[in-house]
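pasting for ref. prot 1 ->
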Amino acid sequence: MIIRRFKNEDSVELANLIAKTLRTTNIKDYSPEYIEKDISFLTSEKLIERSNWTNLYVVCDYNIIIGCGAIGLYWGKEDESRLFTIFVLPEYQGKGIGRKIIETLEQDEYFLKARRIEIPSPITAVDFYRKMGYDYKNGVAELNDEQLYCLEKFR
C-alpha cells in the first residue's frame, strides 16, 4: 500500500470509488437522493478542480485506488485548514486505511501551519473522526444544513 498525491488521470477511478462508498456505506445514514446529490458534486472534473486548491492524496493497493483524502486552507485563512474528501472503499474499511489517510493529512503543510483544523463529517464517520482526536465544533453536536457535523482539532 502506498499513499501519493492525486494525479489528474486518477479522477475517473477516484470518482467511482467515492460513488461506490457513498452508495454502500453512507446509505445507512442518508437517503438515496442525498447520496446522489453528493455524488453529483464529486465528479472526476470536480475532483481535478479540488486538487487545484487542496492537497489531495490517494491510497493505492498495487494499481487500485482504495482511498483518498484532501486538506486545504479554511476560507483562505493561513492559520486554519479543513479536511475534505476522505473515503475508503467499503471492502477496505476497518483495516486502518482511514487512520493512515488522517495521519498523512496531519503531516501535510496545510495541517502543520494551522492552529485549527476543521472537518465536515457525515453521520457515518463522526465516531471515526472523534477517535482521531477531532471533536464537535464549539462543543455543539448538531447536524448543520448539509446534514453534516462540524468537527475541529486544535494544535
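and prot 2 ->
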Amino acid sequence: MSMPRSLRSRLILASVLWTAGLLMLLHMGSLHVVHAVPALRGSHGGIVTILGVAILIAGLAAARSSLTPFLALREKIAALRAGRETRIDGAYPTEVQPLIDSLNALLADREKALERARLTAGDLAHGLKTPLALLSREAAMAREAGHGELAAAIEQHIRRMSNQVDYHLARARVAASGPNAAAIPLSPCIDSLVRTLRKLHAARTIDIQIRISPEIGVRVNAEDVEEILGNLLDNACKWAKTRVTLAVDRMDSMTAITIEDDGPGLAADLRQQVLQRGVRVDEAVPGSGLGLSIARDLTEHYGGTIALEASSLGGLLARITLPAG
C-alpha cells in the first residue's frame, strides 16, 4: 500500500490503523478478563463496544487537533500574500516551527532590502535633479543674455533628462516593491489628484467629473496609485475639449476604474502602441511618451490590467483594474 502524500491523509490513516490495532488488543484483553471473572461474561459485548467507540473518537479528535495549526498557517499565508500581514505569527508544531522562523527572518531581510532600495532611489532622484535645476537656471540666464536659441536647446535637453529620470525611478520603485500591498481607500487619492489637475488646467476650464463610493479601496501602494491615475488623468485633460469623467466600481476581487475624455480620440491601431515606452502620437502636445508606459508597468506589477478603448464621449477611454482593498 502506497503512503498518501498529504499530511492530513497520513494522519488520518495512522489514526485509523492505530485505533484498529488498539481495538484488537483491547478485545483480546477483554476476553481474558471475562474468562477470569465469570460475573462479567454477560456484559462483555457492551463493554468492548463502549470502549472501542470511545477510543475511536479520541483517536479522530487527536488527528483533528494535530491539523488545526496547519489550517491556521494556511490562513496566515493567505493574509501574507494579500498584504494584510507582514509576518507569520503563532505557535506551531516543533517539526514546522523552525521553518516558520526561517521564513519570518527571510521576510524581515526582504523588507530591509526594499527599504534600502527605496532610500537609494530617493538619493538618486535628489542627486540627479539638483544638477538639472542648476542647468535650468543657466538656461534662464542665457535667455536673459539674449541667447534664446541656446536657452531653448538646453531646456529641451533638461526636459528629456527629467522625463528619463522620472521614468527610471518609477521603474526602480516597481522592481523594489512587492506586488502585495496593504489596502488603502481610493477616494482621498483621487480627490487630491483632481484638485491638482484642475489647477494645472485652470485656463482651459476642463470639467472633471468623479463617481466613486468612499468605501472602495485598492491593494496598491499610495505613491503607485498616484502615478497610475495621475498619468492617465493628466493625459485625458491634455486631450479633452471640455470634459473628463472618472468612475470607480467594485468587481469581485478587483476595483475597476474608467477615465474618459471628449477629445479627438485615438485610432484603434494606435491604442496599444501608445502604451509602449516613448511612443507619442502628437509632438505638439507636451509630454515624453513615458507616462502611459509607466502606468502600464505599475498596473501589471500588481496583477491588474489597463486597456484603451473608444469613449462614448467621443474621445478615449482608459479602463484599469487593480486588486480591490
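The first strand starts at residue 184 and ends at 185.
The longest helix spans residues 97-144.
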